[in-house]
Amino acid sequence: MKKDNKDKKPKDLYIKNRSVRHDYNFQNNDIYEAGIALEGYEIKSIMLTHTSLSGAYCKITDKNEIFIVGMFVKRYENGSVTDSLNEYRDRKLLLNKSEIKKIAKQVREKGWTIVPVNIHLSQGGKTIDKNGIEVRKKKNIIKLDIAVAQGAKSFDKRENIKNRDNDREQRASLKRNK
């Protein structure tokens, strides 16, 4: 018996950039949640987790807009999408002007980089009904978490690996001794 897709709830979406914690040092834990300007087929592809953040970074343009560069979004296979679409195209990030200014200041003064951390679904959306009362509707919105970080040096990476291995050995020895 075939099930209807109407009753199917959207699954939890969480796509993580695994290499970002290894390749960058986060001085202050400011993580900004940004919307992404996407096409319809890209939304469907991201919901199926056919995307990758490895090698992606963000840049600020002269017009104080932030774009994500190098994010891979696979073409949606079931759609009528032409072959000429670029899977690595630059996508505009949607942030408040004050957030963009704060990020731009950190990047300009300290020479840091804007890196994507993860993609997730956010419950949001406000509507006002005909009586003027604000009503919240559940609406799944794809969001990208970005952070301002400094590139890690190779000796820092080796030190982090060494500390992680030592911690793992200590936990294992405590477990054996119990």
Task: Write structural notes for this entry.
The structure is a single chain. The protein contains four helices and ten strands. It has 178 residues and is α+β, with helices and mostly antiparallel strands. The chain has a single domain, classed as Small Protein B, Chain: A (Beta Barrel). The strands form two sheets. Strands 1, 2, 3, 5, 6, 8, 9 and 10 form an eight-stranded antiparallel sheet that branches. A hairpin with a 5-residue loop joins strand 5 and strand 6.
Number of spatially distinct domains: 1
Average pLDDT, all residues: 81
Give the number of DSSP strands.
10
What fraction, in percent, of the residue positions are helical? 25-40%
Could you spell the SSE succession in H and E letters?
A: EHEEHEEEEEHEEH
Please name the CATH topology: Small Protein B, Chain: A
**In percent, how much strand structure appears in the residues?**
25-35%
Q: What is the CA-based Rg, rounded?
A: 20 Å
- Going by CATH, the architecture would be Beta Barrel
Low-pLDDT parts are 1-9
Instruction: Tell me the name of the CATH homologous superfamily.
Output: Small protein B
At the first level of CATH, what is the class?
Mainly Beta
Shape: globular
How far apart are the termini?
52 Å
Structural class category: alpha+beta
Helical segment tally?
A: 4
